[in-house]
Structure prediction request, 285 residues.
Amino acid sequence: MKKKVNLFKIFVYLVMAIFALSIIVPLIWVFMASLKENKEFYQNPWQLPLGFYWENFKNAWVGANMGTYFLNSVMVTAGSLAILLVIAIPCAYVLSRIEFKGRSILRGIMKAGLFINLSYIVVPIFMMLLDLNQKFEVTFFLNNRLILCLIYAASAVPFTVYLLSNFFQSISKSYEEAARIDGAGYFKTLVDIILPMAKPAVITVILFNFLAFWNEYILALTILPDDAKRTLPVGLINLQQASRGAAQYGRLYAGLVLVMVPTLILYIAVQKQLTEGMMVGGDKG
Prediction:
């Protein structure tokens, strides 16, 4: 029996190592390629860079306008997360901790929203915004980063509320009862008691939604036609097409690195809290 258990562990570790290599090797290759000159791409593709050609990043950031796209992505992602958390956290708290008529219906609507993919409703969203522009004779509803933030936040509400509600339900009600005895209302209880205990869950939804907002392409391309307002994924596709035509592969991979680095930094920074949010409950009493 012990031998079988050891063989199973070896098999699991082997599979995990293969999966890890399938992610790490392409990642390392992209970083290496971003530091190569164009002539090096016509040699052995796995060869280490002959030098550190940082000019690729300068060309991507300035020449290909990736710096503007990067700042646009930061503003859109940060704004979407801020709007989402302001809406989703109180909503999840109410649905999970407060009894009222119609709560089950609202929770059912939130669960139904989990099955709606944003990519499938891009055309209806665009047509609705276009109609609003025509109705009010304005251009506010299209080519506006704030509108894109609102749409991103709205699309992520069902998932965020569902995850946070489940976490809030695992927190013992004794904390709220103690806070109520001390005279705290619902808002103060949420801010001072519930949120500190739900920190791992909040960080988890921030990371998941950050990845979704940061890498979203279709809606950003549709809603923001102005090149100066485009986000990083849209700019990266334009860079990819331009770099292939001009054979500037180093600049292309430098652009890929600019897209990946923020997600890697964020994941490394919150890895511990992310693990806690997935593995532990909220009752720490």
